[in-house]
Amino acid sequence: MAVYTHLGAEQLAELVAAYDVGELVSAKGIAEGISNSNWLIETSGADGTGARFILTMYERRIDTGDLPFFLGLLDHLSAKGCPVPSTIHDCAGSAFRVLDGKTVALIEFLPGVSPTRPTAQQAQAVGAALAQVHLAAADFPLTRANTLDAEANARILEDCGEDRLAQIDPALPAALQRARDLAAHLPSDLPASIIHSDLFPDNVLMRGSTVSGMIDFYFACSDAMAYDLAVTHAAWSFDKSGSCYDAAIGRALIDGYQSVRPLDAAERNALPILAQGACLRFVASRAEDWLDTPGDAHVTRKDPMDFVRRWDFYDENGQQVFA
Amino acid sequence: MAVYTHLGAEQLAELVAAYDVGELVSAKGIAEGISNSNWLIETSGADGTGARFILTMYERRIDTGDLPFFLGLLDHLSAKGCPVPSTIHDCAGSAFRVLDGKTVALIEFLPGVSPTRPTAQQAQAVGAALAQVHLAAADFPLTRANTLDAEANARILEDCGEDRLAQIDPALPAALQRARDLAAHLPSDLPASIIHSDLFPDNVLMRGSTVSGMIDFYFACSDAMAYDLAVTHAAWSFDKSGSCYDAAIGRALIDGYQSVRPLDAAERNALPILAQGACLRFVASRAEDWLDTPGDAHVTRKDPMDFVRRWDFYDENGQQVFA
């Protein structure tokens, strides 16, 4: 949650002038996104009736070589009616520009707020929206490998090292061997499409029980659709610490998904292990971030153990949960 | 620049329901304000046509006992046509509420962007708007002592101590004696009103050369109007480091002010020393903040020397600048 770069009003006005969106009216740096800076921009609009956008500046973690994939995907999904913001192209047709040496994109603003205590009805809608994205993305012409698959995540934990993992939590080093076992057993032949792969409540905007926006596709990649459902299940169906599973939410999410795209038998069978793979992913990234972040930095570190607890849960109860 | 508190969508929706502003549509934490957290809130509006607000949560530094003064002042100035946001009162008529144990206020959203390289025309408009505020505030019924007058600022520097000041910059301890001298010589009988006392470009929203908003009145207090003009002069007329004075900006600011409220002879004569008092104020607060902020915190510390340089400038050139 930060704005890493100061953009002056004059720079912003000049940037806005490169698009057919009218003149700059207002700009507020917003506290969203961890790998980029974002501004909520208001302009007079191409027709003078006002328009709003999110201006994103890519700061780190994102390879700008991937932007044609990420931004093209937004346009593709949006054109197919998914609740996904489209990219605004500049007067020369480009989906991104360079400002102050950094790459920026102007993206459609979507209304809605992210639920922090989702209802089953909301989870049902999110499941359905995720399936809609999977179906709509099937004919997207670009691909992007999942750079955070189970093997990569096992390697991240290995690079952290047992000693440093133990400093975070004495129970964390046990995840190392579990990660290797998991990587060796995850199925690789499930139906694939482009997946969001990070659909936490933060990345969903809702109005009541309707999904008004799915955002932050910067982990999107080509992978198994059921894995994306498993990620979303792990992200939505527990309290923050992962100690308490909410069966009504988990069930509604899967029902919502299947109302749009029924899972096949192989996918259903794979969900317990895919959910463990999803947990591994966040254990690995949180452990890495934890060790990269000084303890006294004014940044809240996310505890990897929150996802070790989910992992344990899926390990013990996966068969029943996804039956 | 931060949002210190996480507010859930459900908490925000419940808060919004206490006001006659329709339903919550969108909420974004914005990276503004150093003593509070702010959200840009969109609602469906009392009449269903949409409305926007700034939700401010008072985190620290602000004594909530002062809120009737600060928020009442906004309403007073706004009602008199100053470009100042009004406070939205809840359905029970209250200007502020308590949410999650913290005091919050819903404030009118004003369009505009803060200039980072102001033009003389913009400085002229800002001077005029400041004078307008001084005149409009004259009959505001509440008062608030200036807790950051020259004596208080000299004390802040003394509390920092020579050794620690020298750690920031070897030239900084010299400000101590200068501060005592200044505090003894500042005039105390100049025409007074309520002053903003922190009108940096960050706190002014503009559309082209028009002031569309003056914000962040949380240092407002009862004091000499010419001192406020001097603060604004020091805040607007230099490059960031204070090494380079822009005479066209400084002149336009004073001309703009006098186009609405001409200064009397005593005020004109006092401007050189008032401007030094303004510099002292920011030298003191920046030195204090610097020493309070760990060097490795992910927060940019503002260099007090930027205002020592301005102080030197006014000391040497004040008579000509304000002639």
From TrEMBL, chains A, B:
GO terms for molecular function: ATP binding; homoserine kinase activity. Pfam families: APH. Gene3D superfamilies: 3.90.1200.10, Phosphorylase Kinase, domain 1. Belongs to the pseudomonas-type ThrB family. PANTHER family: AMINOGLYCOSIDE PHOSPHOTRANSFERASE DOMAIN-CONTAINING PROTEIN, AMINOGLYCOSIDE PHOSPHOTRANSFERASE DOMAIN-CONTAINING PROTEIN-RELATED. It catalyses: L-homoserine + ATP = O-phospho-L-homoserine + ADP + H(+). It comes from the Bacteria. This is Homoserine kinase. InterPro entries: Aminoglycoside_PTrfase, Homoserine_kinase_II, Kinase-like_dom_sf, Pseudomonas-type_ThrB. Its EC number is 2.7.1.39. Keywords: Amino-acid biosynthesis, ATP-binding, Kinase, Nucleotide-binding, Threonine biosynthesis, Transferase. Pathway: Amino-acid biosynthesis; L-threonine biosynthesis; L-threonine from L-aspartate: step 4/5. It is an enzyme of class 2 (transferase). The gene is thrB. Residues 27-263 form the Aminoglycoside phosphotransferase domain. GO terms for biological process: threonine biosynthetic process.
